[in-house]
Amino acid sequence: MAEGERQTPSDSSEDAPLTTQNFIIPKKEIHTVPDMGKWKRSQAIEKLVVLLNTLDRWIDETPPVDQPSRFGNKAYRTWYARLDQEAENLVATVVPPHLAAAVPEVAVYLKESVGNSTRIDYGTGHEAAFAAFLCCLCKIGVLRVDDQIAIVFKVFNRYLEVMRKLQKTYRMEPAGSQGVWGLDDFQFLPFIWGSSQLIDHPYLEPRHFVDEKAVSENHKDYMFLECILFITEMKTGPFAEHSNQLWNISAVPSWSKVNQGLIRMYKAECLEKFPVIQHFKFGSLLPIHPVTSSC
Q1: What average pLDDT score do residues 199-221 get?
Q2: Which Pfam families match (predicted)?
Q3: What's phi and psi for 244, nearest 5 deg?
Q4: Sign, CA torsion 29/34/36/40
Q5: At what angle are helices 255-266 and 189-197 packed, to 10 degrees?
Q6: What proportions of the chain, in percent to the nearest 5, are helix, strand and coil?
Q7: Dihedral (C-alpha) 147, 148, 154, 155: value to the nearest 10 degrees?
Q8: How does pLDDT run across 97-126, given as a tens digit for each residue?
Q9: How far is CA 30 from CA 71, 204, 218, 273, 278, in A?
């Protein structure tokens, strides 16, 4: 839950006495990465992981085909056609029956989140669609705001793993890549969330993410470093040449400054760029109408 918000139980009246509330002094519980296991994961989060595991299994069941072109393996279209057909059934496994009417709308964002089957490419616009998919599930009450750590580090992380497998297996082209001037060919959000995960880390500093040893020893625990590892697996040559923007970011003195800069960059390079947003779909859950009241 965001700072300053207070969640009111749906069955309580507005004039219910505060004395019925058991107050405790808030404290940090997530001290180290292994402590993540303490986090209460809702059943809906487990079902989302199962959904993503299904997409992963379909990749294994749809091997690449032999073709002259090295990139854009056409087997991806077979994989995507299966998702296109099954998306609503998959989403229905996550959404309770009384919310079944929302399934067709929410399923659109799932289909939009895995890449384009015509161009066989993937980019930050598709990644944003998965964030929208999760946002829709929050808006209809399937996911709760207080599930946010698990939503990012369990569900979104599993999504990243499946997308990386798609990219590797079918040699997908980056959608709208800016080459060396872009942050990354495929992702952006995990760099934002990953840098926030590293704020106030006792010894890992931004300069360490260009250190191969530091990345290999810590990538399993930190989303940002996992992104760096994937880049080095996919690209050859000096890091400063193939990922110049990230190389420059490694000189920033603190993770909080990195995080703030990435948020500004995401707003400018993704959310305010027509080539990205032109493909974004709006519905009743994520309308394009002007905001009239605070959420």
Answers
A1: 95
A2: PTPA
A3: -60, -40
A4: negative
A5: 160
A6: 60, 0, 40
A7: 90
A8: 999 999 999 999 999 999 999 999 998 889
A9: 42, 17, 17, 36, 39
